[in-house]
Amino acid sequence: MATKGPLQGRMRQGRTGAHSCVGLDAARSKTGGVPEMSQTIAFIGLGNMGGGMAVNLLKNGFAVRAFDLSEEALAKAAEAGAVRCASAAEAVAGADAVVTMLPAGKHVEGVYTGDVFDAAKADALFLDCSTIDVATARRVEEAAAKKGFEMVDAPVSGGIAAANGGTLTFMVGGTDQAFGRAKPILSAMGKAVIHAGGAGNGQAAKICNNMLLGATMVATCETFAMAKKLGLDPQTFYDISSVSSGQSWSMTSYCPVPGVGPQSPSDNGYQGGFAVGLMLKDLKLASEAAASVGASVPMGNAAESLYQLLANRGEAARDFSLMIEMLEGK
């Protein structure tokens, strides 16, 4: 699960009064801010997820050059020790690796073809951690390979708390060699780094996982709603189902009923967590991917329709477990 931040539009856009990050790198090495031999990572996209990920790279000894269109996001990264850059191209110049965390496939393709490919040094490694469509991921990785670069698609699962805590799960697509180079960088930001296969397979794994999550959350919500109408106490139903065949992550780790199970967004008015709008985005990506290969996904399609209804009610920013309120008729 992933929450994207404010980076949108043209990544090469600069800022009045912005300093050269190349100059700042040199100044910082003189003051001992970063060991000279540490890898330098260009991090493009410092939103809710990317900001925390960049900080964890810094904590693990990497030097980070940061770029985002949001002044606030850049300021936070600088406070944590990153070097601010005035453009994506400037951040990439001379970096050992480039990590991107962007809202959609069009942004990813635009950044790499418009800025990164031309600015990167010959042996730079590219890691796209955005959640985008499989076709775009494969197209960008093919373009990178034609230019002699190694690249992986490495979308994440875990949400904002995991991004801040360095406990994300990365699903990685790319060659064995590219995965081997990417793993130490990804491990600095996560607890699990899993090679899913060739180019685009990280994205495939992510959207399949989130389609399953979206559908199981709907099922969890409707069963709690039905149990309540049948006269079952929610806690009693949880105590039974959580140790029975109906158990799922949506129930035992992310229960949609306030006051039942471990702490979750339902205990905070369905704020935080994984937004309805982001779940809907992932389900749409899954639906598109399924159609492209002729896969039958009736449960995934049904879940997409239900989350669309929830978003249409103006709830796109709240947590996706809010589904239970709609099913209860609230």
Structure overview:
- This protein has helices at residues 21-30, 50-59, 71-79, 88-92, 105-119, 134-146, 159-165, 176-187, 201-229, 234-241, 249-252, 276-293, 298-315, 323-327; strands at residues 40-44, 63-67, 83-84, 97-100, 125-128, 150-153, 156-157, 168-173, 190-197.
- It is built from 14 helices and nine strands.
- Helix 9 (201-229) packs across helix 12 (276-293).
- The model is unreliable at 1-19 and 23-37 (pLDDT under 50).
- The longest helix is centred in the middle third of the chain and has 29 residues, at 201-229.
- It has a six-stranded parallel sheet, sandwiched between helices. Strands 7-8-9 form a three-stranded mixed sheet.
- With 330 residues, it is of the alpha/beta class.
- The radius of gyration is 21 Å and the shape is globular.
- Strand 8 (168-173), helix 8 (176-187) and strand 9 form a beta-alpha-beta unit.
